[in-house]
Design brief:
Radius of gyration: 22 Å
Helix content: over 70%
Number of strands: 0
Largest sheet: none
Order of helices and strands: HHHHHHHHH
Oligomer: single chain
Distance between the termini: 10 Å
Number of domains: 1
Length: 269
């Protein structure tokens, strides 16, 4: 009887592990994308409440950089450059980590950047309890949060083969509009060109948008209520996804050892 809970735990961990493992199916890609889109929406909304700056997309950052350079606001321009460089650095570290894990034959090459993001979120949440919300602290938090978003966005980009993004919705909303236009198009006149919408893609994009909005609502509420401590539940979610492969391996090893002992022991249970 004791083996049944272990077996169930292994099955659950295998389900979670498929989200970050190599050779995943499309369904696992979608589930991971939905999770990360929810996380990105929550962090983006929470970051705005804390530092009055959206950190998940670089379009606004680059536009602000140009505006500040044109108006001579060099300190604000330097902050924009730091935010942009941090986002790029996060994406680069994600790529390095994933490719390094692949070369070593890791079963879950995408787990490392997610676990790293979880650790940084724990650090962010813990520091918020001891650091006063001064202008200097706010200034330092913006590049830090941009780094997290770059790390996460690059991870889901690698996971999905550049098919999905989760930290910004501009491309997703644009593609939703395109597919809706194709869906509403009336192929009335006979033609060798038939316009058809990709309903599967439209479903995926709509769910990503929904998860981002839902994450934003939850993030805005929890960050307003708990402050930086709201980053800790997000870190727990990411850590659960990232550490599932290691936990699964330990439980599988334990189950194999138990079965080996039963084969060697002739006594009835």
């Amino acid at each position: 009887m004791a083996a049944r809970p272990v077996h169930r735990a292994i099955q659950h961990l295998r389900t979670v592990r498929r989200l970050v493992a190599s050779g995943r199916r499309e369904r696992a890609d979608r589930q991971l994308a939905f999770t990360l889109s929810f996380v990105a929406g929550g962090l983006n909304a929470g970051a705005f409440l804390l530092v009055r700056q959206y950190t998940s997309h670089m379009t606004g950052i680059v536009s602000a950089l140009a505006d500040n350079l044109a108006s001579g606001a060099l300190r604000l321009a330097a902050l924009c450059i730091a935010a942009l460089a941090s986002f790029i650095a996060g994406a680069a570290i994600s790529a390095i980590s994933i490719n390094w894990s692949r070369r070593r034959g890791s079963r879950a090459p995408y787990a490392a950047p997610l676990l790293f993001e979880a650790c940084l979120l724990v650090l962010f949440g813990a520091l918020g309890a001891f650091v006063s919300p001064s202008p200097r602290a706010v200034t330092a938090a913006i590049p830090f949060l941009c780094f997290l978003m770059g790390l996460q966005n690059a991870t889901i980009t690698k996971v999905s083969g550049s098919r999905m993004r989760t930290t910004h919705m501009t491309g997703i909303v644009t593609d939703i509009g395109i597919e809706l236009g194709k869906l509403l198009y009336w192929n009335r006149m006979p033609s060798h060109v038939v316009v058809l919408a990709d309903r599967k893609k439209l479903d995926l994009l709509s769910k990503l948008l929904f998860c981002f909005i839902t994450g934003g609502i939850v993030g805005a509420w929890t960050f307003a209520l708990l402050g930086t401590a709201a980053a800790l539940p997000v870190a727990t979610l990411l850590a659960a996804v990232a550490t599932a492969p290691a936990l699964e391996a330990q439980l599988v090893l334990r189950e194999a050892k138990r079965r080996r002992c039963r084969r060697l022991d002739p006594r009835p249970p």
